[in-house]
């Protein structure tokens, strides 16, 4: 059971396996017997087998959902904040454990007994950690910022609702770069997320906490959100399968935004099959997100797992383009070890029967819509309509307008104009300039028709190249001079080769990241991005699954529980300590900084100095 009293760390370690009956402690590298359930690297199929008794716990008993959730919570409590020998720093992937997680698990165990199995809940008892910018009705989301403490949604984000319906347990929230502005895993709340393979190395971002947590086996699945890189990079450097789906597959509702012309949520897990299951659950048609209407229910796959047939949907016979460069000289195939690993992956795809071609996209240009202020205030509008409660109601109360109804709610009953994120004086110093830049944008300016048309034109260009249009520069021809229709492109999702994320973010097309090996010089995994046409995630999943099964590059990190540091013994203590993490590690917390630091910048931006 989850401890309510503090016990000695060594005793905790020795008691773990016996108390939980799970292989959840000790060395992660020692596999159990074939019929024994292993928490480390468990899959959804493993969990369902263990619930049915096909796999047994260490004590010979059947697994229950409550025991599984207890085991993941226990692992977070012991490993998350412990400095790791591999890099000297803690992982700090998990931010908040949902106090209702065990209640959710109890309810699922009751359903299992009543129905004699998982029923149609294909994610029955999948403990999931959400990036901290996904709304949940039963615990807060803060986008990794002290400015958003107390931000409690009244309803789930649409994609979270889908996860719950499919049977997932919402275990809690994972750290992220503050407001998702960066890709390094740093925020005022997280301080610095560490890559569990080497905590001195970057975990990628902005979905850094999800990447680190799922790699460290703190949950069975996780969610990220990707504006440019934020699912793809942390998946690549944490040895995960991550899906940045085409815009419109998953609703943007309830995910704190940067740009709705680029943002999308997506799954981050350890296997392609679990990624396909989570994508199925998260995807939906949602009138609150008009992009989902472009992908009507009649055209959507019933289950993305249906594409995971190596014989019919694998690499054999597929025409795959290796993207060597695009736009102004971006080396899309990476550099150094990353390039070597990607080439080895391409060679493997050839051996699996793929036809491989070199591709360039010389006419590509990165596109977007600089309307962050508008998008964020639009989020707050839907948040209010869903019954949410929060000390924040807009980006900036000084700059609030009637657009989205922000004037009335952002300043009412909030002395000193403290209804805005900027004026809260709680944004971390590293993030404050980016938030101020967003606040400086016009809160009434939605994307222009010209901006939207430019995005469509870039998608048409890339799609035309993939379709083999002979009139388009970049189209590939075979040895006989015939244009080639490409099923997918492969490229580097980082960490080298430039901003490759702009390809998917501009075109709003889909990508699946899959592990391709390790950079032994730093001990960190690397990945390959499989890029597909808009709404054609099934093709990418089929190729990714075939490659994954042929290589099995995914390996767990070698991490240690906290033995020489004070342990968090309860969920309440863990949650409380993460809120004051920065105060423990820095001389001045953001909320204690002199107001003049913020007011000087605000007065320069707006010509107004609000009263603190």
Describe the fold and architecture.
This protein is of the alpha/beta class and 612 residues long. The chain folds into three domains: 9-33 and 66-307, Amidase signature (AS) domain (Amidase signature (AS) enzymes, Alpha-Beta Complex), CATH 3.90.1300.10; 311-368 and 449-551, Amidase signature (AS) domain (Amidase signature (AS) enzymes, Alpha-Beta Complex), CATH 3.90.1300.10; 372-446 and 580-606, no CATH class. The protein contains 19 helices and 14 strands. It has helices spanning 9-20, 44-51, 65-79, 101-115, 158-165, 208-215, 232-237, 272-282, 310-313, 336-351, 372-385, 406-411, 432-439, 449-467, 502-507, 537-551, 571-579, 581-585, 595-606, and strands at residues 94-97, 127-131, 169-174, 186-187, 191-192, 221-226, 241-244, 264-269, 319-326, 330-331, 355-361, 488-491, 510-519, 524-532. The strands form two sheets. Strands 1, 2, 3, 6, 7, 8, 9, 10, 11, 12, 13 and 14 form a twelve-stranded mixed sheet that branches. Strand 13 and strand 14 (524-532) form a beta hairpin. The longest helix has 19 residues, at 449-467.
């Amino acid at each position: 059971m989850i401890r309510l009293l503090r016990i000695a760390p060594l005793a905790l370690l020795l008691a773990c396996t016996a108390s939980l009956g799970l292989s959840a402690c000790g060395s992660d590298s020692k596999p159990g017997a074939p019929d024994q359930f292993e928490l480390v690297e468990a899959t959804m199929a493993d969990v369902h087998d263990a619930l049915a008794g096909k796999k047994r716990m260490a004590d010979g008993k059947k697994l229950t959902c409550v025991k599984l959730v207890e085991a993941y919570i226990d692992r977070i409590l012991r490993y998350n904040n412990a400095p790791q020998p591999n890099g000297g720093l803690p992982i700090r992937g998990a931010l908040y454990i949902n106090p209702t997680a065990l209640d959710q698990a109890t309810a699922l165990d009751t359903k299992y007994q009543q129905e004699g199995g998982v029923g149609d809940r294909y994610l029955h008892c999948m403990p999931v950690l959400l990036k901290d910018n996904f709304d949940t009705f039963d615990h807060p989301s803060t986008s990794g910022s002290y400015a958003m403490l107390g931000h409690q949604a009244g309803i789930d984000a649409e994609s979270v609702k889908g996860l719950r319906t499919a049977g997932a347990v919402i275990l809690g929230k994972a750290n992220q770069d503050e407001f998702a502005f960066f890709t390094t895993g740093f925020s005022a709340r997280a301080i610095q997320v560490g890559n569990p393979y080497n905590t001195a190395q970057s975990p990628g971002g902005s979905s850094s906490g999800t990447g680190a947590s799922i790699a460290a086996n703190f949950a069975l699945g996780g969610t990220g959100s990707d504006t440019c890189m934020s699912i793809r990079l942390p998946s690549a450097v944490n040895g995960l399968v991550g899906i940045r789906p085409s815009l419109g597959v998953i609703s943007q509702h309830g995910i704190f935004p940067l740009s709705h012309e680029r943002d999308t949520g997506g799954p981050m897990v350890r296997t392609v099959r679990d990624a396909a299951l989570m994508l199925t659950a998260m995807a939906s048609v949602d009138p609150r997100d008009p992009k989902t209407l472009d992908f009507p229910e009649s055209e959507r796959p019933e289950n993305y797992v249906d594409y995971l047939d190596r014989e019919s949907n694998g690499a054999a016979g597929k025409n795959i383009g290796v993207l060597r460069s695009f736009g102004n000289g971006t080396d899309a195939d990476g550099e150094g070890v990353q390039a070597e690993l990607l080439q080895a992956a391409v060679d493997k795809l050839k051996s699996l029967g793929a036809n491989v071609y070199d591709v360039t996209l010389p006419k590509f240009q990165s596109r977007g819509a600089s309307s962050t202020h508008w998008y964020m205030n639009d989020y707050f509008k839907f948040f209010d309509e869903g019954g949410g409660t929060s000390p924040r109601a807009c980006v900036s109360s000084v700059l609030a307008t009637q657009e989205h109804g922000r004037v009335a709610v952002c300043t009412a009953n909030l002395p000193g104009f403290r209804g805005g994120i900027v004026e809260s004086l709680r944004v971390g110093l590293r993030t404050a300039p980016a938030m101020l830049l967003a606040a400086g944008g016009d809160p009434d300016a939605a994307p222009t028709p010209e901006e939207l048309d430019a995005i469509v034109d870039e998608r048409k260009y890339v799609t035309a190249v993939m379709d083999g249009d002979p009139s388009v520069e970049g189209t590939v021809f075979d040895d006989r001079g015939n244009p080639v229709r490409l099923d997918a492109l492969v490229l580097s999702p980082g960490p080298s080769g430039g901003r490759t994320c702009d390809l998917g973010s501009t075109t709003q097309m889909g990508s699946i990241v899959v592990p391709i090996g390790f950079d032994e010089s730093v001990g960190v995994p690397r990945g390959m991005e499989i890029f597909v046409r808009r709404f054609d995630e099934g093709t990418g999943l089929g190729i990714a699954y075939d490659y994954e099964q042929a290589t099995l590059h995914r390996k767990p990190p070698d991490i240690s529980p906290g033995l020489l540091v004070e342990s968090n013994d309860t969920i309440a203590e863990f949650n409380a300590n993460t809120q004051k993490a920065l105060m423990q590690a820095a001389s001045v917390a953001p909320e204690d900084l002199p107001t003049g630091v913020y007011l000087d910048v605000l007065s320069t931006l707006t010509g107004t100095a609000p009263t603190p």
